[in-house]
Amino acid sequence: MTRALIGLFAPREKLSRAALIAAGITCVSLLVRWNSTELPCLAILLGWILSGSFSHLAISELSWERAWPVAERLLWRLRIFAAWLVGWVPGLALLIAASALYALGVVSARTWAGIVFHTSCILGLVPLASAVSYRLSQRKQGSPSAVALLILLPDFFLAAIAPPFGGESSSVSTLLGLAVVVGGVTGAAGFLLTPTSWARPRIEPAQGRKPLWAARQLLARVATLNPLRRAPIARFFFLNGGRHAVFGWVYLLFVTVLARFEFPALLWYLAATIWFQAYSGSMYRDPIPGHLPVSRGRVLAYLLAPLAVSLLSGLWLERRSPQPLRGLYVQAYYDDWRREPIGKGLFSEKNSRILVPSSSWRASWGEPPLVTTPEGVSRRPAALAVLPGLPLKVYNPYDARLDDEPAFVNYQVSRALSAQWPLPVSAADVERACGALRRGRMSPACLNGEFSTGYHQPRAWLAVECWLLCLIALFALRGQLQDPRSRNRARRWSGLLWLPPAIVLPMAIEQVGKNDPTTGLGPGFQGAVLLGELTRVVERAPVAASVIGLMLLAGTYGYVARCFARTESRPSARAHIV
Amino acid sequence: MSVLSVRDIHRSFGKVQALRGVSLSAKQGEVVGLIGKNGAGKSTLLKIALGLLHADQGTVQVFGLDPRQRPVEVKRRIGYVPEDENVFARARIQQLLELHAALYPSWDEKLAARLLGALVRDTSARVDRLSKGQARRVMLACAMAHRPELLLLDEPAGGLDPSARREFLELAIALLNDTGSTILFSSHYMGDIERIAGRVIVLDQGQTLVDEELDVLKEKYCVALLPSLAPDQLAALEALPGFLRQQARGEALYAVFALAPDAAAATLAQRLDLQDVRCARVNLEELFIHLVGGPA
């Protein structure tokens, strides 16, 4: 019987297992490829989120299972065991894989220590959190997702706040962790509060709360003045009041606080898109457009209006706000303390002497062009494939390898600075200004006195990010309109194709916005390079690019509108879950 | 003129055929009850009538219009309560009322208040914090307060206690009297159907098994209790005029005929040589069980 119960409680759903397996494979492959803690941990965190959401931890079954002739203690142990399975199996697998890779010399000790630390935190917290959440679930009814989040919440939080062991840039995991925290708190609040507010007696205002009560009454009266006008606003709040929309708001808030952006307009774009992902999702979950006499075209306009407002305000902000003085933030290393490359035979930004932000990298179809100094020394920069097997590559045109001579490094630094500054900088200038340093960071501070004058970041005539985000948002919406009952399974799942670009684009914008040469390589970095290329194309032919962009947008909008008009309402409460 | 006209509708969900050639029409002021087992296609039919789902084959006309071509115009004249689902769970009652008042030009605030009953005293309550019965009441108020010409109710009384169900039925009848609305509603409560429906449609496995006036159904349908029959006799039974369904239960065999009891007994005696067979009229619930009560 115990075996049967274990089978019942264990995460048996295909999606749950698939999420865990996919997370494990992604994590290990990222670990091998990038030799960093950040991306592998993100993969495993996402795997845990998805697996926890899909797994069989629904507390609605509690009353049912408690009616069985089984000791409650056994039920409790089995529940905890199920939670451990969700939390521990991928953690242990990751530990074993990371240790094996470390033993083989593929990953560094620092990375291995970071993985061990993150995983240990999670392994330690899973039993604790699951025990607490089980007790909570016995007390009151709540949503299964709230319980899953309660179990997972402390894990993510610890993982997010523990960058000292290897998170190169902890902002992504911090954002993710905080979003989960807020989502969990929201869910937990709904879970802990008694859901029967109607049964409570109407509370008359206490003396101390009278002003607030009076304000609420006033608002209620104003609300009834012109219901016709207020209806769209009410509908807007229906769509944005849900817990799923919280993630978008949280992202907006924490990106503002944490992300150290140099370009506020990029922040607007980014936040607007993230917000829209959550916002448009609610459209499909709430069958509001279904039976009411509202045309689909109008509903689509409602859905897209906040996004359009956000993006247009971002565009306006970009045009109107004073651009920061922006020098190319270069790190150049002349010493040989890095002689031993990190990650044997692996591509790593740390194997280069010169680090530049992603916006200064270039894309090439095939091998990158040779760099030749006036003295005739030629080097080909190391390149990184955007996708394995694809000839589209990104490379640092100012790359200087560890075995290059200081003269070549000077030449590359001078090129890097000349590309960004309005004045030509020669290798001799670099040698004269910074040769004495010979070590460490070479930044505008090194050359400030001689070259740094007023510099303005060139603007794309129509911001590339703006219409790219619009496109992604439209395709995201289109993806959510897939018919879940379609006979064609591939077609049903094709709705998720928008996910990779929707994830990579904000990461790319974040990379561009940071203007930081030390940010780790990854999908966001490669996306940022491609974004930079596209921006350069737009700058070269702004009118033509804008016309094409607008036509593309209009066409996509028409396509999505047509799909939206044809979409059926979901046939039942659960059938829309793909 | 038909308010609702459905012709030869087919609809599949993957490999499952939910509707297979269903046709029906409803005139102004008519109350049509849809009954059938779970999965018979009742909700699908209602959603197709409203334009929420599309038919794979067949035509639908509401007020002479195609609900897919003229959705807003059609929906403005329809009230709809979905099955066991609070579509605006996070909204407050006041917000819902405002939204519906804005969407329906014929919205009647007094009727909405009447339909809400005691709930009207605290319209700041969120729908998901209401009891199931109260939430259904809000949904009914939203569906009925604009005095729709066609009311589509999908299990409207599901989960309601008997007194709430009775109250709802009375409200529906009052609306019918006030505005002459056409009502098409599905229910598993035969008592409710008998109370307000003028016509009954029995759906079984996506097909219309019976479409009759309730009075006719009560008068002209009967169930015959037969002894177990040999296979050739069974084949002969199924070929009899007026025969609908047969089900074996234990040693006995129940056969449903669209005939008056005397006529059914005479037919059985004449064609199958079964003398003194007991044929009787039964109530709607019994008839339903004998018609569709077997394995799906």
Describe the protein.
The complex is a heterodimer of chains A (578) and B (296). Chain A is mainly alpha-helical. Helices cover 62% and strands 3% of the residues of chain A. Chain A is built from 22 helices and seven strands. In chain A, strands 3-7-6 form a three-stranded antiparallel β-sheet, covered by helices on one side. A two-stranded antiparallel ribbon of chain A has the order 1-2. In chain A, strands 4-5 form a two-stranded antiparallel ribbon. In chain A, a hairpin with a 6-residue loop joins strand 6 and strand 7. The two termini of chain A are 33 Å apart. The C terminus of chain A is likely disordered. Chain B is α/β, with parallel strands linked by helices and 296 residues long. In chain B, the strands form three sheets. Chain B has a six-stranded mixed β-sheet, with helices on both faces. Chain B has a four-stranded antiparallel β-sheet with strand order 11-12-10-13, with helices on both faces. In chain B, helix 4 packs antiparallel against helix 5. At the A-B interface, helix 10 and helix 13 of A face helix 1, helix 2 and helix 3 of B.
